[in-house]
Design brief:
There is one protein chain. This protein is globular. It contains seven helices and no strands. The protein has 158 residues and is an all-alpha fold. The longest helix has 28 residues. Keywords: Membrane, Transmembrane, Transmembrane helix.
């Protein structure tokens, strides 16, 4: 059982690398890499995607941002009005409490690179690098996801 989960994670990691970087470039990178690195690195891709969806890292980044933004004057000149943060309602403490939420986290995390690659090809076709297109789209999707979660929290507050 553990072996099949491991090899599924390795295969998913390899497919994700080829999808995000490009088929030829991904194969070249993996052929040149150390086999031990591949056997350890590739399974971490799905694990990190799932952990990235489960951990509420945005709250920690926002807390750090609010704590240190007043001390950095360059941030105040780039982002005016940052000194007066809007109060925020925290999200639920345990995102895996509901089985539907756990399924949504798992499926959303694993399909994220595929969606980012497809939308990146559609929206950023002028960019030559597959990796750059995917990163641009991931940033776009993360901003949209944060806006949606903020809007849904605001709806709950009223």
């Amino acid at each position: 059982m553990v072996g099949s989960i491991y090899w599924t994670a390795v295969t998913y990691g390899a497919v994700t690398v080829m999808q995000v970087v490009g088929h030829k470039e991904g194969l070249d990178v993996m052929e040149r890499a150390d086999p031990l690195f591949l056997l350890i690195g590739l399974p971490t891709i799905p694990v990190m995607l799932i952990l990235g969806k489960m951990i509420r890292w945005e709250d920690y980044v926002l807390r750090l941002w609010r704590k240190y933004s007043n001390k950095l004057q360059i941030l105040n000149s780039i982002f005016p009005g940052i000194g007066c943060p809007v109060p925020r309602i925290p999200a639920e403490a345990n995102p895996l409490a509901d089985h539907v939420s756990a399924t949504r986290i798992l499926c959303g995390a694993l399909v994220f690179p595929t969606i980012a690659t497809i939308v990146g090809k559609l929206m950023f076709s002028s960019v030559n690098s597959n990796l750059q297109r995917t990163i641009l789209e991931k940033e776009n999707e993360e901003v949209k996801e944060r806006q949606q979660s903020t809007n849904s929290r605001d709806d709950v507050a009223f």
